[in-house]
Design goal:
This protein has 9 helices and no strands. Helix 3 packs parallel to helix 5 and helix 4 crosses helix 8. The longest helix is centred in the C-terminal third of the chain and has 23 residues.
């Protein structure tokens, strides 16, 4: 899909998109930054909705209560078990933004963010040909059932009109947005304290063996 990082790019290096899983930091910078953007958006949306008679539209992604894991913990879990590159999370972030632009009455909150994240990452991984585990595997990573994962994926794809292609220009623009976010995070710290084109996946046996090593978790937002 044409979004492989260029090794000489300072921007990609700053975001941790130049892969170095052996000997590098356990979690790339991009995970922290995407988490920060989403968490702040959730806080702003929930404050706005709390003080307004206007209520957001409930979707298949909504639960009755927020899961126990924070957004950052959840993304770190996905990164740990999905075998996706850091770039995949930028693409997932782009897909999530497209979804929310299509659903103007849907606001990102603690009740829907986790399901939207696991779905956007899975779709991005499939389109980019990364990992290519099946839906059952991603369901276990995300803490939902396989049946629910299937429904989430289909809803996400139809809502975004299967717009999965990400150009180099779009990818770079979102990387720049995340770098701006990085500057905000650093300032805060300084204060007083298309579902096609899939690569061939792993065998069912390999998927079962890897799935057996996943720490148990349930996305209890039911």
């Amino acid at each position: 899909m044409g979004t492989k990082p260029i090794s000489g790019s300072k921007s990609y290096l700053n975001l941790g998109l130049i892969e170095n899983r052996n000997g590098g930091p356990e979690t790339p910078r991009v995970i922290t930054l995407v988490s920060s953007v989403i968490e702040r958006t959730i806080q702003q949306n929930e404050r706005s909705l709390k003080g307004s008679a206007r209520k957001g539209l409930n979707t298949i992604f909504h639960g009755s209560r927020a899961p126990a894991l924070s957004i950052r913990q959840y993304l770190e879990r996905i990164y740990k078990y999905s075998n996706c590159s850091p770039s995949c999370f930028v693409v997932a972030y782009i897909y999530l933004d497209r979804f929310l632009h299509q659903m103007r009455d849907v606001h990102l909150t603690s009740l829907n963010a986790h399901r939207l994240l696991i779905t956007s990452v899975m779709v991005a991984a499939k389109f980019m040909g990364e990992g290519c585990y099946n839906n059952a595997y991603f369901a276990k990573v995300g803490g939902v059932s396989t049946g629910e994962m299937n429904k989430l994926e289909m809803n996400f794809l139809f809502t975004t009109d299967f717009r999965l292609l990400v150009t180099r220009e779009t990818f770079d623009r979102y990387c720049l947005r995340l770098e701006v976010e990085e500057a905000k995070v650093e300032r805060w710290v300084e204060l007083p304290i298309q579902l096609c084109g899939l690569a061939q996946g792993r065998t069912n046996r390999e998927e079962r063996n890897r799935a057996s090593s996943i720490a148990g978790y349930t996305c209890r937002a039911l």
